[in-house]
Amino acid sequence: MKSLTWLNVAAAALLAVSLALVWFAAPLEASMGAVQKIFYFHVAAAWVGMVGFLITFIVGIIYLIRPNPKLDWLGAATAEVGLLLSIITTVTGSIWARPAWNTWWTWDVRLTTYTIAILIYVGYLFLRGAIEDPTRRARFAAVYGVVGFISVPLTFLSIRLWQSIHPAVIGTATPTSQGGFDMAPIMALIVILAQVTTVLVFAALTASRYRLLELQDQVDAQRALALQAESDLPSHSPATASVAK
Amino acid sequence: MPPETTFYMILAFAAYLGLLGAYVGSLFWRRTSLKRDSEALREMQAELERKP
């Protein structure tokens, strides 16, 4: 518990430092102006969110081979935080697109595949919420997390496979894609710091969510015990019914 | 001279921090709610054990 608190404090502190550096120290980019500063966290949120989905995929496979509730909690936590980061990526990207592309949204191949991926992981959370039995829920979620992951490499490769107006920084394959690593040393340093910060924020949020799922499991066990004790009594007590789900 | 896009930068960082803050808030809320449930169940268990 103490290490989780320290992780949260470290993530919050590094986030504050990174934001201050992006705001005050990062130079203005020549063609886009201040709005380019969104990229420091937009790019980091995008790839770290995808790593979250990758972890859900990996622990899903391991769970199906060796079922363990801890793997289920880890898969659920990384999927939820991955989804949060993906939504952040979409929203900040849309705000950047307004001055850069002169529109808040366009059904470009990257934006479309990313939206599909987000909806798939929203579905993952709905699926978990719809199943009461923890073992059944974990098994179904593991299968869904493995199958749903197809959307992630598809999103990553979309701008390399099809024509897109979205910039491709790594592995520019299509002539319409733009990008590269040409930037001032201070910009490169802040880019790296933003990536490290986002990884730490992801770790802190995932650990906090994992702890919550652990707590939920304890409360469910307590609830089952209370219901068992109540059913053992000769007469029904209405008090338990209010806390029982 | 770079174009004036400061408004969009502020909007994006507000959205970033707002979404992050809302999620952290939801974690706190869910934790508080679970602690309350746990406490209520503990009291109920104790009450049931006291019954003859």
Summed over residues and divided by their number, the pLDDT of chain A gives a mean of: 88
Return the string of H and E elements of chain A: HHHHHHHH
Low-confidence stretches of chain B: none
Output the number of helix runs of chain A.
Answer: 8
Percent strand of chain B equals under 5%
Number of helices of chain B: 1
Radius of gyration of chain A, Cα only, in angstroms?
Answer: 22 Å
Using only CA atoms, what is the Rg of chain B? 23 Å
Helix content of chain B: over 70%
Provide the structure class of chain B.
mainly alpha
Compile the SSE list and pairings.
The complex is a heterodimer of chains A (245) and B (52).
Chain A: H1 2-25, H2 39-65, H3 69-101, H4 109-130, H5 134-148, H6 151-161, H7 185-232, H8 238-243
Helix pairs in contact in A: 1-7, 2-3, 2-5, 2-7, 3-4, 3-5, 3-7, 4-5, 4-6
Chain B: H1 6-50
Provide structural commentary.
The complex is a heterodimer of chains A (245) and B (52). Chain A is mainly α and 245 residues long. Chain A has one domain (2-217). The relative contact order of chain A is 0.15. In chain A, 76% of the residues lie in helices and 0% in strands. The longest helix of chain A is centred in the last third of the chain and has 48 residues, at 185-232. Chain A has helices at 2-25, 39-65, 69-101, 109-130, 134-148, 151-161, 185-232, 238-243. Chain A is globular, with a radius of gyration of 22 Å. Chain A is built from 8 helices and no strands. Chain B is mainly alpha-helical. Helix content of chain B is 87%, strand content 0%. Chain B is built from 1 helix and no strands. The longest helix of chain B has 45 residues, at 6-50. Classes of the chains: A mainly alpha (245), B mainly alpha (52). The interface between A and B is large, with 46 and 32 residues.
